Amino acid sequence: MNSPIDHPELGPCSVDAFLGGLVQLAQPLNGYRAGVDPVLLSASVNAKAQDTVLELGCGGGVASLCLGRRIHGLTLTGVELQPAYADLARENALRNGIELTVYAADLNTLPPEVKAQRFDHVIANPPYYDRSRSVPSENEQRETGLGGDTPLSKWVSVASKRLAPKGQLHFVQRADRLPELMSAVFKSLGSIEVQPLYARTGRDAHLVLIRAKKEGRADFRLHAPIVMHQGAQHGGNDKNYNEIIEAVLRHGAGLDFGGRA
User: Fold this and answer.
1) SS3 209
2) 182 in helix, strand or coil?
3) Which of 42, 68, 101, 111 has the least CB density, counted as fewest CB within 10 Å?
4) What is the SS3 assignment for 9?
5) In angstroms, rounded to a whole number, what is the distance separating the alpha carbons of residues 256 and 61?
6) For residue 182, is pLDDT > 60?
7) CB-based burial, 96-106: b 16+ in 10 Å, e otherwise
8) Tens of pLDDT along 54-84?
9) Is residue 158 in some structural domain?
10) Rounded Cα distance, 114 and 224, in Å
11) CATH number at residue 222
12) List of E strands, 199-238
């Protein structure tokens, strides 16, 4: 982490290294802070140069900018509800020399510039918690990132409408919300694939990556799980990531469903 900087609306921000320092991103010290989840999401996107990518709820730009660093020549667009985070995403794009167009908007009322386009990929890291069954954070900025009030079905519906024919949706979500997410995806997309992520051997899945295709016809695929950490329990400050996850987080590698980096 570099020396903290001040953001006029978000306050003190740390500048954190992602992908082993290939990407430097400012994040508020008090507010929503991205972890490894958007990095894993970006690594799973099987895009190619010249593809167009839309991120719904881009926050400070972590997923889009990590994707843009891994695959050059993408056209990246982000939509973010909170104007201060939209500003931060733009600043982070400039900080890293990656072109990213960011709109401050609610996904329920996308700007005309976004609604006029169809994208090869739509990616999202929607809020993880259903607040009808959990306690909201007292920090408003953190709560918008973690809880929010837009159902997963709306995230999927908006993403589907913005996809070009044969375009792909890519989401990361908590495993316990997979039924809700799958119910929404089945209504409008096909060729659905799910990649479970386990923290350690012997534990339940805690995250899932999901991919689906507009007009896709392939059979549903539930891939073999990826166990992120070596060993049965946490040991000191060493996270003990397995070689696949280490390659993604420290060296900017892509992540194939089925456990290949």
Assistant:
1) strand
2) helix
3) 111
4) coil
5) 22
6) yes
7) bebebbbebbe
8) 999 999 999 999 999 999 999 999 999 999 9
9) yes
10) 36
11) 3.40.50.150
12) 205-213, 221-222, 226-227
Calculate ∠ Cα 153-45-122, nearest 5°. 40
> Residue 89 and residue 165: Cα distance in Å, rounded?
28
Provide the phi-psi class of 120: left if phi over 0, else alpha when psi is between -120 and 50, else beta: alpha
The model's confidence at residue 135, banded by pLDDT at 50, 70 and 90, is low
In which residue are the tokens 């997410």 written?
A: 181
The one-letter amino acid at 111: P
Does 30 reside within a domain?
A: no
| φ/ψ (deg, to 5) at 13 | -130, 140
**What pTM was estimated for this model as a whole?**
0.90
Residues linked to residue 25 through DSSP beta bridges, in sequence order? 16
- Establish if 189 belongs to a structural domain: yes
- Mean of pLDDT over the chain: 90
- Look at residues 53, 15, 22 and name the one whose alpha carbon lies nearest to residue 252: 22
Domain holding 53, by residue range, is 36-251
In a domain, 178, yes or no: yes
CA distance 77 to 116: 13
